[in-house]
Structure prediction request, 264 residues.
Amino acid sequence: MFSSPPLGAGLIALAGLLAPVSSFAQQAATTAAPAPDWTVTAGAEAQWEPAYPGANFMRLRPFPAFDIEYKNRFFAKEDMLFGVYFVNNANWSAGLALQYDFTERETSDDTHLRGLQNVPATARAKAFLNYTLSALTLSTSAAQDIAGNREGLVVDSNASVTLPVGKKLYLTAGPGVTWTNGTYQQTFFGVTQAQSTASGLPVYDAHGGAATGYVTVEADYLLTKSLIVTAEMKFARLYGNAAQSPITRRIQQNTDTLALTYTF
Prediction:
């Protein structure tokens, strides 16, 4: 009933491509020593990113890079300052985390923003769920502002495939979409009557919906067994209310990241 020769051939080809990755993962699982209580990765990274959501110019921002886990239960990584896994195994990971969202906007950044409000970075409560099958990973998360900065709810869903290229290089790529609620949209992209009078921009009511679609491409190269250099390019585009806002200067919102990390 559902038979399709081209689809069947494609699935067989994909299975053949992913089989070596699955086989390698199974062999590693059976031969690996018991995991230590602590797993620590640390380093530094730099991001070349839009100065604020909708900006038409970029800024360079340095960040510490870290991924710390204790007994496969507690962790701190990337922008998640502290988190706990409810489940964390080869296929599933899910939990809660305290996230620090660095997204912000200063009116001094751009004359176009004069008369609007500053939007600070904020703390969020984040729930996440990831599923991995061989080289494929599906992820979704929801992060709510808990610092009272009216930055609302951000929901992100994405898919990615990771494949080895030789023994030292791994490539990861996949699409994603970010949805934000009306509170977030109005704070970053809306213009009130008072702000319109002060800035000269037209009044604009922003509503919740899909805000960003993106494709991420990442390369991880093992300089040594413990030292890894990572380069990532995120090609993102604003949609809906975010793209149509008079605050937005450019709908293409790409981010480039370069990192160097060491696993102890």
